Amino acid sequence: MTNKMITLLSVFAVFFITSCATRVDFPNSETVPGAEVSAKIKMDNNNNYKIDLTAVNLASPDRLEPPREMYVVWIETSRGTKNLGQLNISSGLFSEVKKGTLTTTTAFKPERIVITAERTSSNNEPSSYVVTSSKNFELD
After folding, report:
1. What is the value of pTM for the model shown?
2. Domains identified in the chain, total number
3. Residue 69 lies in a domain
4. Which of 9, 13, 122, 131 has its CA 20 to 30 A from that of 28?
5. Cα 136 vs. chain centroid, distance in angstroms?
6. Ramachandran sector of residue 67 (left: φ over 0; alpha: ψ -120 to 50; beta: rest)
7. Is residue 133 a contact partner of residue 113, using CB atoms and an 8 Å limit?
8. 72 with 131: CB under 8 angstroms?
9. Under 8 Å CB-to-CB from 3, ≥6 apart: which residues?
10. Which residues form the signal peptide (predicted)?
11. How far apart (Å, rounded) are the C-alpha atoms in residues 96 and 73?
12. Quick check: is 94 in a domain?
């Protein structure tokens, strides 16, 4: 009886932990067609939003036309557009596949995520060079 109870509690805990994050998938990009982008958003204990964004098969921004220096991630909120920071681009040790990641926390409730190609990361507004953007989403 005790083993069954532990198993049941373990299954419930795994379900509860994984169900707390909202997954946001991005549509295919016309600018970087092979890119696969997704984000997980979860509210933390301080009512902030933790965002883990991953982009696979992303071309280096200097290979875009016109070339850019970096990718910058933005969120659209009820209080306007906020710059979350630069997407960190790397490739694997034995692979040339580019992977971009950004993990950050914000006090602003995101409603949409946008990735732009930029010359600098310190912009207050996104450029018109949108690489991809999510659809609007609701968080619990």
Report:
1. 0.82
2. 1
3. yes
4. 122
5. 14
6. beta
7. yes
8. no
9. none
10. 1-23
11. 23
12. yes
Helix ranges (H only) for the chain are 2-19
Q: Residue 105 region, left (φ>0) first, then alpha (ψ -120 to 50), else beta?
A: beta
Tokens for 72?
């910058």
Give the pLDDT score at 94.
74
Residues 6 or more apart whose CB falls under 8 angstroms from that of 17 comprise none
Reduced to 3 states (helix: H, G, I; strand: E, B; else coil), residue 68 is: coil
Q: Flag whether pLDDT at 3 surpasses 90.
A: no
Is residue 139 assigned to a domain?
no
Residue 17 lies inside a defined structural domain of this protein: no
User: Residues 116, 72: contact at Cβ < 8 Å?
Assistant: yes
> Cα angle at 101 between 15 and 67, to 5 degrees?
150
Residues in the chain: 140
Task: Give residue 82's domain range.
Answer: 22-133
